[in-house]
Amino acid sequence: MAPITSSQFAKITFKLKDTYKWLNPTMKIALFGLLYLMMACNSSQDSETPVEEVIDPVNDPVELVGAALNYRNHCGGCHGQNMSSFVEREWTYGNSFEEVAQSIANGYTNNGMPAYGSLFSEQEIQELTNYILTEIEGKTLAMLEEENPDLSGLISSDDLTFRLETITDQIPGVPWGIEQLPSGAFLVTERGGSLFLVQNDGNLVEVTNLPDIVSEGQGGLLDVIIHPDFENNSLVYLSYSRANPDNGSQLATAVARGMLNGNNLSQVEVIFTALPYVDSGAHFGSRLVFDNSGFLYVSVGDRGRRDTYPQALDNAIGKIHRIHDDGQIPTDNPFYNTSGAVNSIFTYGTRNPQGMSIHPETGAVWEGEHGPQGGDEINLLEAGNNNGWPVISYGINYDGTTFTDLTELDGMEQPIHHWTPSIAPCGMTFVSGDFYGNWRNDLFVGSLKFEYLHRLKMNGNVVVGHETLLEDIGRVRDAEMGNDGYLYIVVEGPGRLIRVVPEQ
C-alpha cells in the first residue's frame, strides 16, 4: 500500500472521527483495525515530517456520544471541559434556552465564537444547548474547584519523577502570563485587567497604574515579561488589548512598559501597537520574549480577519514583530527597507499565537499557535519567513468545511509539529539546564482543551516523541522556566501558580 500523505491522513481522520459515534460495536472494532493499518503503512514516511496526532481511545473516550461528544470536540477548548466558563458568569448574549441555541447556531465571530448552524442540525443544537444548561445547573465555581485533582504525592513521567508545589491557588479570573522576578516573586497577569505580584509567601498584591486595558472577548491583559537588565532599570513589559482613541469599539494588540516600584508601575508608556485597530474581540495573540541580543518579540493574532491581514505586509496583524526594548525598529529587520511594509515584521502568516519561547542552546525563537479545527502549530521562526496562514493549513473550519486544500506550498514554511485534532495550545517553554535530566531542551506546551501539559521530546529541531503530563489539572495558560531553574505553570479553575519539582 502506498503511504498516505499527511493532508490525506488528516482529512480521513476527521471524517472517521465524525462517523465513529454512529457505528455499532462490530463496526467500531473494524474502524480501529483500519486506523491501525493506515498508521502502519504511514510509518515509512520521512522522520522529519511533522507528526500528526490521531484518534486516541484514551483522550477521545468512546463512551461520549451525541451532545457530550460535540461539546468536547467543539466547545471544551474555549469553555473548559468542565464548563467552568459558563458557571457564575455574566452571559453577554443571554442564558435562556433560545438565546444559547441562537449563539451556537449563529455565533459571534467578532468575539471569537464561530457559528455551528451549518455543522449541527437543529436537533443537535437543541441537544447541545440542553446538555450545557443541564450540566451547569446548580453548580458553583467552588464546587468545580473541589473536583480538581489531588496535587500531592510523587508523579512519574517517562524520564522523571517529580512533585508539584502550589505557590498560590488564589489568582482570580483567568490568569494568562507569568514572569519571575530576581527576588523569586512572580508577576501574574489576569485577563480581566489585573496584574498581581505573587510574593514568596504566596500572598497576592495587586500592581497599580496599569495602561488602559480593554477586556473583551479573547482580549484583556495578556503577557508579562521583565527587561533583561531589570535589576538595574526595573522595566516591566505588558501585552494587552487597547482601544482606538478615536473609536472605542475598535481594538488592537499593544505593548506598554513601565518601571516597577513596589506594587506600582510608573513612567508607563505604550511602545508598540499592532495597527490597524479592528472591530473584533478575537485572536489578539499575544506573547512576549527577549532574545539573547536584547530584541523584543511580540506575537499578534489575525484578529479573526483570516483573509484580510496575515499575508499582507502593509499591516501588523497576524505577524511576529521584532523591536528594540524602547519600541524602536531594528534596521536589520527583514522588511525594514521594503516599500509599504510594516518594518517591525519579523515573520508573517500567523493565526493566533499564544506561545513563544527562546531555545536555550541555539537562541532561536519558537512560536506556538492555535489552528482552527485542527492544525495547531509549533514553528521555528527565521527572519522574513511566511508561515502560511491561511493559504496552507492542516486544519479545517469549525463548521467542518474547508478553506484551503493546501498543506504545503513553495515559499511557505512547514511547522516543526502540528496537532490534528487540536489541543488548543497556550503558553510554552523549553526546559533548560541539567536540573530536569532527560527533559533538558524538550518543549512543554499547555493545553486548554484537554487540560494537561504536553511534552514534545526533542532531538535538535525534530520532535521524536510525546508525553501528556498533569492530566485534568485545569486549563494550562502558561509555562515558564523561572530564573531559579524550576519549571512553573499557571492554570485556571482555580487560578493556581505551580512549581514542578524534580525528585533528585
Give the amount of beta strand, in percent.
25-35%
Strand tally is: 25
CATH superfamily (homologous) name of the domain at 6-140: Cytochrome c-like domain
Q: Based on the structure given, which CATH architecture of the domain at 6-140 is correct?
A: Orthogonal Bundle
Q: How are strands sequenced across the largest beta sheet?
A: 1-2-25-24-23
Low-confidence stretches: 1-32, 34-62
Overall geometry comes to globular
Question: With helices defined by DSSP (H or I, 4 residues minimum), what is the helix count?
Answer: 8
Tell me the quaternary state.
single chain
State Rg. Answer: 22 Å
CATH class of the domain at 6-140: Mainly Alpha
Plain-language structure description:
There is one protein chain. The protein is an alpha+beta fold and 504 residues long. The chain has a domain at 6-140: Orthogonal Bundle (Cytochrome Bc1 Complex, Chain D, domain 2). It is built from eight helices and 25 strands. The protein has helices spanning 6-20, 25-42, 66-74, 76-79, 97-106, 122-136, 141-146, 230-233; strands at residues 155-156, 161-171, 175-180, 186-190, 194-198, 204-207, 221-226, 235-244, 247-261, 264-273, 288-290, 296-300, 319-323, 345-348, 352-358, 365-370, 376-381, 417-419, 425-430, 443-447, 452-459, 462-469, 475-481, 487-492, 495-502. The chain has a five-stranded antiparallel sheet with strand order 1-2-25-24-23, with no helix packed on it. The protein has a four-stranded antiparallel sheet with strand order 3-4-5-6, with no helix packed on it. Strands 7-8-9-10 form a four-stranded antiparallel sheet, with no helix packed on it. α3 crosses α6 and α5 crosses α6 (122-136). The longest helix is centred in the N-terminal third of the chain and has 18 residues, at 25-42. The N and C termini lie far apart (48 Å). Residues 1-32 and 34-62 have low confidence and may be disordered.
